[in-house]
């Protein structure tokens, strides 16, 4: 008899235990410990057991076969911003498509423009992939460029449907998910959910092809969670040149902060790691604003705070993917000239939260965030790769008139058991605003 059964039977013997709650806890806990690969393997085994009842079978799309189906409707150019629901397909494209036929763009609007240029040059449609949180970035180029009635640019939008109705998700996705169909409809973009079996996917692609050929406009496929079979990118060979992880670098930065310092954490895993580190130190969370959505806007949020709270040091803890998404704000920060603005960019060269696809910041020989900031007008820029360098730079930053930027180059990857904040966004905002009012 395994340990879970022993625990379960002993609990049943207690008169004070509500039985259904115990059952749910045990089932949920064991499920959460499974990797995606384990869940898929378990579901495939179950499929074999119920194969005579097709209504109970759970299907998955093979990224390679779906890629072949896309090629069959005449699409061989791919661009966009990676998403966690598309990570397996995006990983396949990254691994198997020549660089000149696949561009990971800094934001979703740029991908629409790129697809438009490809169509002008070739007469063919491209695929633009994105998370539904990126729909806001495509509104302008879709409505004023690609839509039928303006320039009529056919393109296939593959959209990760985070927060789909009936599914649990993070706060920002719970708002975006139900709104997604309405946003697409308001832009005049026909859409349908992508079926999770290949015959259905092929029919959906044929529908998209007919629309793009007749209406000459964008068509969207909404991708639900766990639509694709797992596909992993090979380990990045450049990874060994840096000794620190993003989480380790973040910890050394936090160790150099003072009690009254203000922190704005960027979207994604950095804010989750920051939350857990504060928890482990017993610091409390009122000093940190965790930007759960609005990727690329943490620095603008920090700028707004810095301009109004000139007596406080404001640290924006950013990531390379996020800063690239709206990099023009660096010029705004420099032009505004807040002396208390301290910009920490932790650069691991990847979109780590959504599958590890590379960003252009991975090319450390050609690309330099620090030099870009310097060219925009930052007062001082620094680069660190080791603990000792971070400690030294943090001391300099405190004594240097801002805006100042520290780029910390780190290896890729994250801790597999990384949790999520247990406090609500409303609680975070309330405590943070109270902290800002302290003299």
TrEMBL record:
Keywords: Decarboxylase, Lyase, Thiamine pyrophosphate. Residues 66-168 form the Thiamine pyrophosphate enzyme N-terminal TPP-binding domain. One of its GO terms (molecular function) is thiamine pyrophosphate binding. The keyword Transferase does not apply. Residues 268-408 form the Thiamine pyrophosphate enzyme TPP-binding domain. Pfam families: TPP_enzyme_C, TPP_enzyme_N. CDD domains: TPP_PpyrDC (cd03371), TPP_PYR_POX_like (cd07035). It comes from the Eukaryota. One of its GO terms (biological process) is organic phosphonate biosynthetic process. This is Phosphonopyruvate decarboxylase.
């Amino acid at each position: 008899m395994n340990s879970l059964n022993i625990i379960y039977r002993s609990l049943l013997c207690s008169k004070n235990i509500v039985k259904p709650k115990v059952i749910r806890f045990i089932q949920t806990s064991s499920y959460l410990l499974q990797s995606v690969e384990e869940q898929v393997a378990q579901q495939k085994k179950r499929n074999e057991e119920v194969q005579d009842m097709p209504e109970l079978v759970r299907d998955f799309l093979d990224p390679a076969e779906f890629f072949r189906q896309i090629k069959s409707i005449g699409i061989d150019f791919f661009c966009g911003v990676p998403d966690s629901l598309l990570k397996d397909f995006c990983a396949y494209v990254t691994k198997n498509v020549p660089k000149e036929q696949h561009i990971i763009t800094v934001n979703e609007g740029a991908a629409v423009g790129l697809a438009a240029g490809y169509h002008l040059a070739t007469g063919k449609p491209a695929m633009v992939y994105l998370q539904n949180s990126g729909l806001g970035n495509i509104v302008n180029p879709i409505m004023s460029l690609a839509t039928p009635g303006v320039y009529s640019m056919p393109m296939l939008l593959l959209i990760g449907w985070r927060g789909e109705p009936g599914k649990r998700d993070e706060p920002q996705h719970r708002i975006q998910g139900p709104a997604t169909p309405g946003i697409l409809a308001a832009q005049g973009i026909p859409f349908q959910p992508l079926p999770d079996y290949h015959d259905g996917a092929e029919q959906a692609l044929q529908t998209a092809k007919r629309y793009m050929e007749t209406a000459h406009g964008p068509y969207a496929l909404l991708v639900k969670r766990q639509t694709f079979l797992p596909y992993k990118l090979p380990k990045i060979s450049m990874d060994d040149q840096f000794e620190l992880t993003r989480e380790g670098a973040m910890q050394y930065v936090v160790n150099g902060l003072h009690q009254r310092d203000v922190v704005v954490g960027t979207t994604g895993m950095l804010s989750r790691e920051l939350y857990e580190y504060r928890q482990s130190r017993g610091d409390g969370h009122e000093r940190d604003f965790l930007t759960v959505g609005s990727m690329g806007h943490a620095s603008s949020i920090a700028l707004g705070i810095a301009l109004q709270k000139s007596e406080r040091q404001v640290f924006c803890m950013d990531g390379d993917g996020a800063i690239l998404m709206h990099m023009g704000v660096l010029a705004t920060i420099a032009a505004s000239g807040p002396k208390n603005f301290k910009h920490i960019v932790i650069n691991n060269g990847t979109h780590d939260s959504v599958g590890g696809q590379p960003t252009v910041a991975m090319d450390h020989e050609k690309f330099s965030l620090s030099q870009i900031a310097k060219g925009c007008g930052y007062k001082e820029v620094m680069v660190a790769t080791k603990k000792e360098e971070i400690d030294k730079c943090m001391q300099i930053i405190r004594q240097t008139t801002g805006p100042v930027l520290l780029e910390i180059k780190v290896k890729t990857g994250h801790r597999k058991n990384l949790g999520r904040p247990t406090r609500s966004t409303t609680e975070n905002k309330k405590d943070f605003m109270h902290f800002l009012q302290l003299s």
